Amino acid sequence: MLNTICDWSSPEDIAIEYHNSETIKKISYSELSDAKVKIEAVLAGAVKNHQFVGINCDVKAPSIPALILGILSQGSAFVNLPSTGVREISSRIGLSFAFSQSVLSGANSLCEVAVHGETVKLLELETIDGTNNIDKNEFAFAITTSGSTGIPKVVKVPHASIVPNILELKQILRLSKHDKIAQLTKLTFDPSIVETFLSLSSGSTLFMVSKEVINNPYKLLNLIFEHEVTFLQTTPSLWLYRWSEHQLGNTIFGRESKLKVLLLGGEPLPKIEMFRTVKHPINQTKIYNIYGITEVSCWASINEININHNEVETSPMINQYLGTPFSETIFQVRSEKGDIVCDGEGVLYIGSDTRVCAINNEDLKHLETPVFRKTGDLVEVKRNREFFYKGRCDRTVKRFGNRVDLTELEQTVSKLNFVKNCLVLWDEKQHALYLCISTTSLRAAGGKFTDELKVQEELNNELRKLPSFYQPNRIKLFNTFPLTINGKICTKSLMKTFETTEKGRVQNSQKANDSKLVKKILLQLWKNDLKSTIDSGFLDSGGNSVKAMQIANELSAASKIEFPELIGLLLKNETLANCMDYVLQKIQSSVQITSNVDNIVSSSSSYTQFAMNKKRKYDVIQPKKYSHPNLCLWQKCRGRVTGENDENYLLPSTNLNLNIRSQLIVECTQDLKKCVDASPTIFKYSSGEIYTSVGSHAGLILTKQLNSHDSITYEINLPDRIEASVLVLDEFKGIVGCYDGYVYCLNLKSGQIIWKYKTGDTVKCTAATSSNGKSVFVGSYDKYFYNISIEDGQEIWRFKCSEGSISATPCTCLRACSVLFGTLDGTCMSLNQTSGEIIWKFKFNDPIFSAPAMLENEDIVFCSVSGEMKCFNSETGQEKWNYKIDGNVFSHLVMRKNCFMNTEELIIGSTNKSVYCLSIQTLSSTPVLKYSVTFECPIFATPYCERDVLIVADTGGVLSFINAFNGQVVTSLKLGGNVFSSPVINGEFLVVGCRDNNMYVVRIVG
Fold it and tell me: What residues contact 672, with CB distance under 8 A and at least 6 apart?
């Protein structure tokens, strides 16, 4: 029995060493024994003859071994309850009693007991179906499977099944009372039980940590290293993604490490080169691959991995070898017909006469031994003695009439040096093949980054070795893969990233012949997949045949139109402009299709016309002409530019050396009756007119033409204060939120209220347009986020995101069809634009007042008021990096493209009186501080950056004109009051609001 294999021979030795974020608690074997006896006594009366007793997930880690031992000693079996689905598992095993630190819903507290300084309650759960009363109990514990081998099952594990597993492992690994064994596995994952009883049966110390430490990988690694843990069990994914190679090489895989055993199980082993790269030549850690399934009580075989630094080549099958089966464990390979295979490939079954568990409602008495359980794994057996893992059984799919082995594709890609791990997903609905690649560091030995184009070329060359039907529809690079709570790669989350994108494409394709939308999609695909400017040719920008196929496929899927010549054009190194011409002509031809076959324009004639017009790219660019004068071409506000900017920049970069003589001169002011805290919007219409619009605390909205000597102005009065900026639409429509709780759609010239929508509280949030241009997104202080139709102001959907109000402007992501925003309780959220469903969310410790910033690859950066920044994959919510500045942040985040260095820069204003410029060297690395500029007063306003010019307004009312390249202040101007409004610039004009009730138009001279 589990409770009888514990070694109590040294009562004063430390049984448990528990670390939280601040303290260390040490519990001796004598103290553990006393606690076990106390638990046993508590259970003796109330829980006699009950088969299972639960342990709730809220019980602190150091109390759990005593509870387990007390339950077992009393004659019951234990079950570690998950954080969700407690009632389901309770009903399936007839659970009536559980230990918990809080009172669960529908439960009665019978008594309390002190366990190692913690008060634990014994609860009687509400009456449930099933029986738990028995005379004799043969089970040690119950657990649910992860579902990786099918639908999750409840597995009831007898002592006779788990005890041999632990005793044999203890012997193989040569564990003794001098060891320190880490217990880091989730308690609802059966390897955690192996960790606990390997330690107790050896008389060694069980190393446990709090949830806070588990969630801080760097601190956890340092504790493991500094406190000389000798045994560590984990999944390959946690080992790959929890810590970097550098961190491992300096700690548990370094020369000073005390780690004796690293046990990797639950997933296929990673490439052996990964260990050889990080492990110091004199490091003595032994690495084992352990294999098994929950249905046969955890582990079934083990193999030591020989890491030889002097060995040039390693057998390609070394990481696939499953090792030697444990005693009382039988490996059997069967063909599809059920015949036993002694030499060849088949499905692995694990069986035993004694290590037999009851699954769901099985009765052990009725099972004929040996009992075999199907693993769902395909293996190769050699001469009935050696077993090699080949992949999951469901990894062969039918594609284009051919059988595609997904494992073969994974193994092919994994050979590349820069690939840490890869996974292939098959989307049956879309009939699409997705390749997910997790990359190693791309730094070479000299510290420089390898050529990313060479990386793409290597991947392309490797994929060419496979048949065409193996070529993936889409390839995504990941810094880390999302993991389940058990530390395995979460395929559902990975698939969701692609499904979300596909869903967005379908929604974006509802207007198949909308050339404006297709242009936007192609532009976005070009920017996402290529590393150079849109003026360069496709191949010059880093394109290759794989990317050409992906762009063509994605554009066709989004538009429901085929573009047969597009791949050829891309591989002929055509520019985006030429590809766009072809796409638009193809769309035009599809519009002309009718039931009359004579009207169909063939693809060849379309291409011929395109080829004839190729010479146009050398012509002088003519000004764009628009049939309608009232189309909003672009708008600028709070560091963002949306729409088709026509290169009307502040100053050409060639004139940057003139900036030292530049001056800021007030051109004019406009009285808005009360404070102007709202940030102005500058926008341009197709007629060529450029305007600015801003609201004030008086409820007055003023719109002024900037490129007119007549100084034309229009005024609108709303009932209450305005702090939101105006979102500008076609036909001089403007959308703005007001303190009276309404979102208004107005004619900015006539003042006509086209529609208004009532929320439950103040609206400070500036609205954002949806990707399809048919609705707007806006948040309210009533804590709801709204999607409102532009046409009639009707609510499409609303969503209460959290307990925090919404102040900052949202950001839309076309590729994921999502809208992203933060709230004042620190929640950052990604919602599906069409349905309002949550795609992902994350919770900061502090409120979010800032709008997020989107990088060129559509990663999204959020910043809390405390100055904590995090970068996430906008589709998955996977965290890429984090950065902290020493000051509060209320201004929005601003992105700047450094064309000279081909990097991106993040600009942040802070109330600590500084503006920071962070350089983002690569898409996955933590930013580096390029410079910071300190001013006389705090900064609440969002800086504005265009080309190499940065404008900053501090609360003291000083406008500073700065060289964005080096942070040098060129000139400044003092306004007549405090400034919380964000400046915006275009051409020679700068516009900003002020608390002296005025909107200032400032001219930049020099």
Answer: 694, 695, 696, 698, 700, 702, 993, 997, 998, 999
Pairing between β-strand 727-728 and β-strand 330-334 as defined by DSSP bridges: unpaired
Estimate the crossing angle of helix 545-559 against helix 491-508, to 10 degrees. 60
**Residue 64, pLDDT above cutoff 60:** yes
Assigned token pair, 619: 């012509």
Q: What is the CATH number of the domain that holds 139?
A: 3.40.50.12780
- Cα separations in angstroms, 253 against 276, 278, 318: 10, 7, 20
Q: Which two tokens mark 617?
A: 């790219």
Scanning 20-84, the segments in alpha helix (DSSP H) are 29-46, 64-74
Q: How far apart are CA 274 and CA 283, in angstroms?
A: 15
899 pLDDT more than 90: no
- Backbone φ, ψ for residue 506 (5° rounding): -60, -45
Which residues of 833-875 form beta strands (DSSP E)? 838-843, 853-854, 860-863, 868-872
Q: Are residues 340 and 452 in the same domain?
A: no
**Which helix (H) or strand (E) covers residue 112, if one does?**
strand 108-115
3-class state of residue 950 by DSSP? strand
β-strands 795-800, 784-789: how paired?
Answer: antiparallel
* Residue 636 φ then ψ, to 5°: -130, 135
Measured CA to CA, the distance from residue 823 to residue 843 in angstroms comes to 9
- Regarding whether 408 and 352 lie in a shared domain, the answer is no
Most confident of 135-149, 569-583, 872-886: 872-886
Which residues form the domain of 415? 395-497
Instruction: Enter the pTM of the model.
Output: 0.52
Q: Which two tokens stand for residue 609?
A: 């016309």
Residue 866 Cα distances to 175, 847, 884, 939, angstroms: 47, 8, 8, 14
Please report the DSSP string for 382-399 in residue order: ETTTEEEEEEETT-EEEE
Q: Which residue has the higher pLDDT, 473 or 72?
A: 72
